[in-house]
Amino acid sequence: MHTNNRTTRQLNFLRAFIGTVLLTLCSCEQYLEVDPPKNQLTGEVVFEDAATVDAAFAYIYAELRENGFTTGGTQGLSYLMGHYSDEFDLYSSTLPGVLNYTNNTVLPSDNSVKNLWDTGYGLIYAANALLEGVSSSGSLSDVEKERFLGEAYFIRAFLHFYLVNIFGEVPYIMTTEYDENKDIDKLKIAEVYRHIEDDLLMAKGMLASSPTDLERFRPNHWTASAMLARVYLYLEEWQMAIDEASNILSDSEYSLNLDVDKVFLKESPETLWQLGPGLPGNNTKEAFTFVIVNGPPPNSALTPTLIGSFEEGDARFDHWIGSATDGLETWYFPFKYRQFVPTASTQECSIIFRLAEQYLILAEANAQLGNLGPALVFLNTVRSRASLPLLGNLDKTSLLEAVQAERRVEFFSEQGHRFFDLKRTGRADAVLAHLKSGWESSDQLLPIPESELLLNPNLLPQNEGY
Are residues 361 and 326 in the same domain? Predict the structure, then answer.
């Protein structure tokens, strides 16, 4: 019975994936499910030319925008982990699953946990299908193959990065072979990161000569380098993080947007990678999810502690935070993305990587190595953009605290940065224990979905505390 369930799920995914690719040669992202060839499941037709492979990638990015970790909707990390940490208060009575994140009552049976797992591994399956199909294609040119393979390696690493940070020990899936995957074991966290690093290094090398996507809807060489810099920061490989981030600042075409009011616009020079809108005139799911038109909030609002963490005169407070009132009380919300309805042309896209992160990676990694002068320069660059006074004469401990304070107000409501920063710097328990009833250190990981443990007992034991 377990085999039938898993096989059915993979068949359905592959049908949708192949059907999507074959029907995406029109410019819009409207996908229908069709049956694959009855004698095969590999869908070689997908890999006959570059246009159909591009359509396969379009499917992946559409899923990331609509349903995956990076969606700006209520099932994405920006929303869920914002409630799990200290960024959002929940006001809605129609989102009981989100209430579990606010109240620290997440269960292995929660649909949100299953969705994170399923969409993550579903898109990894798609990336592996691309790796296998492109590698065996007899019609794609070597240049096309290298670009597509690099992009697929990046996607596979990117997705596993979130899985390991959400769930801890997880499988690293590198094939579409069902017999190999159905009973796969979890890997130690260090092993997962080793595979992530390997994939990103492959991606970085293969994408080095790829043409630039001027709208930055596709990850490129510099996106892989930015992801590597983040990975090295999480692994406390300080010099390697410095090397990656420094190369981006010195050699790439990206530049910090000095106008804080324009950082999240579609044409911002700071954006390394953003998700396409789907249809011309569409904007972001973040704006639809976060913007409060009238008080009281229909869903969520920023916490008073987050609002209180902004220094007086911080331009980000004025430009990235909106407010709504009912005449008696005022609520605050993320206003990084403002267009919550379609416009004549797309003005905002969901940004996944932007250059400010690399400045703060350089600040933190240099401070950790005792390079306090350079660390202060990189930190002050971000502060200056926010119209804040420059800091000086800080010892190592104070400088690292200042970097984390800066990351909090720079990346609030963006893809779970706050929660992951609390975890990796060892501050999660101290910050969250007095906010979450019954908080334990083990709560820094979400539970593995119980449905997956039933399908594959090799994923046992369940994460501690569940």
Answer: yes
Residue with tokens 């630039």: 212
Separation CA 21–CA 460 (nearest Å):
36
Contact (CB, 8 A) for 465 and 440:
yes
CB atoms within 10 A of CB 130: 27
Model pLDDT, residue 345: 97
Virtual torsion, Cα 410, 375, 271, 64, nearest 10 deg: -70
Q: Is 330 helix (H, G, I), strand (E, B) or coil?
A: strand
Domain span at residue 395 reads 216-334+350-425
Q: Which pLDDT does position 370 carry in this prediction?
A: 98
Residues of the chain predicted below pLDDT 50: 1-3, 7, 11, 21-42
Q: What is the pLDDT of residue 22?
A: 45
For position 31, what pLDDT does the model report?
28
Share in percent of the chain as helix, strand, coil (round to 5) = 55, 5, 40
179, 182, 186, 191 alpha-carbon torsion, rounded to 10°: 40
Separation CA 51–CA 325 (nearest Å): 49
Asked whether 392 and 322 are in contact (CB, 8 A), the reply is: no
Tell me, yes or no, whether 293 and 439 share the same domain: no
Q: Which of 457, 453, 455, 440 is nearest to 106 (CA)?
A: 440
Q: What is the largest CA-CA distance in the chain?
A: 70
SS3 71: coil
Q: Is residue 135 part of a domain?
A: yes
- What pTM, to 2 d.p., does this model score? 0.92
Residues 433-455 as b/e (b if ≥16 CB within 10 A, e otherwise) read eeebeebeeebbbbbbbbebbeb
